[in-house]
Write a structure and sequence with these properties.
Layout (H helix, E strand, L loop, with lengths): L15 E3 L14 H13 L3 H12 L6 E4 L2 E7 L5 E7 L5 H11 L5 H6 L5 H9 L12 E4 L8 H16 L3 H5 L4 H13 L13 H8 L33 H22 L15 H9 L5 H11 L3 H14 L3 H6 L6 H14 L10 E4 L2 E4 L4 E5 L5 E7 L2 E4 L7 H11 L5
Antiparallel strand pairs: 1-2, 2-3, 3-4, 4-5, 6-7, 7-8, 8-9, 9-10
Helix pairs in contact: 1-6, 2-6, 2-16, 11-12
Length: about 425
């Protein structure tokens, strides 16, 4: 039986469906090298640059639904700017059985390939060696074909939006490339491990080596073990039920909430530390007391704890609820955008105006009329607003109940941010 006989045939493999991940805020859709290669293949495949731009806006506006990955195809329902939903499909040709045999032969030639795939890594030399053997994993220009219910024969805004969301999924799990190319990732890994574990065939007596060479070999340190697997969830905090009354001024419920929050934050920090490229990322600034109160309030504590957090951060319950909403939509940078108003002057103002001008340069009559006050641009005749932060990102806001409330995360593209505000309320972008 050949190796590929142990794996499902192309087109008959399983499928995996993912709830659409939240669009990345303030960064590119892909941060890994393989995710960037996927995006590059898309942008080099699409004949219409306007479709690529429209797809980025739809993806950042959260218009892509659940994504299903199966051999040769990824599928999702994408909501267009007019509110109409279309089924979008992106096709990638599966590898043949012979190509899979060549891929397995290449993958076991170097130690560490199997461990890397198990750790959701895609070694560049594995992809390069497999491509040299005629078994491409990553798509190239023209490899990503499009089918969409909107009737466009080439890539449209719906299929490009789907591709950008697939890049986010690939960043997290590159084994999805194996499934797209026709084989279930778990089956491929099992075949690799079985092949790697096969005993080497002994053809003769062992060869003697020079004593100095043998001594030098003993000085070579073995590779470091793989880092521990990330637990699926934070560990339980210690129990505070001691059977005795708490000391004066100590609130057991608030203390239990803080302990649980500390465990969750430790789990999040460990997950960040285990991600590729973590060592090269800048260290986050220490949060202020007012900002950390918002983070804690976002964890959903009891009303008494919420009141204490609001009092300690100088906010009433309504203001704290608005800050929590901003945090959940845009992370740690969002509460400052909600609460801070500042004058945009000099070079910052020049860059802001240039970004606004470029965002709608191809839209003709679709350009909104914006009225500026400080770092806030309000759309005339619509309950939508853009807010500029000090890092040059645009944040969508909607007017609800007489107040401006956050409607999404920050974006370098003001048009995409404004589309988020419109989609959040079901309005025409």
């Amino acid at each position: 039986m050949s190796r590929h006989d142990a794996m499902p045939a192309a087109g008959a493999g399983p499928e995996r469906t993912f709830t659409a991940p939240p669009p990345p805020r303030g960064r590119a859709f892909a941060v890994t090298w393989w995710g960037a290669a996927w995006v590059r293949a898309l942008e080099e495949s699409a004949l219409d640059s306007a479709a690529v731009k429209a797809g980025r806006r739809l993806a950042r506006a959260g218009a892509v639904g659940a994504v299903t990955v199966r051999p040769g195809r990824v599928t999702a329902v994408v909501q267009g700017r007019d509110g109409t939903a279309h089924r979008a499909d992106v096709l990638l040709a599966p590898l043949s059985d012979d190509q899979w045999d060549r891929f397995l032969d290449v993958a076991v030639e170097r130690s560490g390939h199997v461990a890397a795939l198990l750790d959701s890594e895609l070694p560049p030399h594995l992809v390069e060696d497999a491509a040299s053997a005629g078994a491409d994993l990553l798509p190239g220009p023209g490899d990503l074909e499009a089918e969409c219910g909107c009737g466009t024969w080439d890539h449209c805004g719906h299929t490009t939006a789907l591709c950008y969301q697939v890049a986010v999924l690939l960043d997290r799990d590159p084994s999805l490339l194996l499934l797209m190319r026709g084989r279930d990732g778990a089956a491929v890994l099992a075949a690799l491990q079985a092949h790697d574990a096969a005993p080497a065939r002994v053809t003769g007596p062992p060869e003697w080596v020079d004593a100095a060479e043998a001594y030098a070999t003993g000085l070579i340190l073995p590779a470091l073990p793989a880092p521990p697997a990330l637990p699926t969830e934070p560990g339980p905090p210690p129990s505070l039920d001691t059977g005795t009354a708490p000391p004066p001024g100590v609130d057991p419920a608030a203390l239990a909430f803080l302990a649980s929050g500390a465990a969750a934050e430790a789990h999040r920090l460990l997950a960040e530390a285990l991600r590729p490229g973590h060592a090269g990322r800048p260290v986050d600034a220490e949060p202020t007391v007012a900002l950390d109160a918002v983070r804690l309030a976002a964890g959903g504590p009891e009303p008494e704890v919420l009141d204490r957090l609001g009092e300690g951060s100088g906010r009433d319950r309504a203001a704290l609820a608005d800050a929590v909403r901003a945090w959940r939509l845009g992370g740690a940078a969002a509460p400052a955008v909600l609460e801070e108003e500042w004058e945009v002057r000099g070079e910052a103002l020049v860059r802001a105006r240039a970004a606004l001008e470029a965002a709608w340069e191809d839209d003709g009559d679709g350009r909104p009329v914006l009225r500026q006050r400080a770092n806030r641009w309000t759309v005339e005749g619509a309950p939508h607003q853009l807010r500029l932060d000090r890092q040059g990102r645009w944040w969508p806001y909607r007017r609800e109940g007489g107040r401006w409330l956050p409607a999404g995360g920050g974006d370098r593209d003001p048009a995409a941010a404004l589309a988020s505000a419109a989609l959040a309320g079901g309005d025409e972008p």
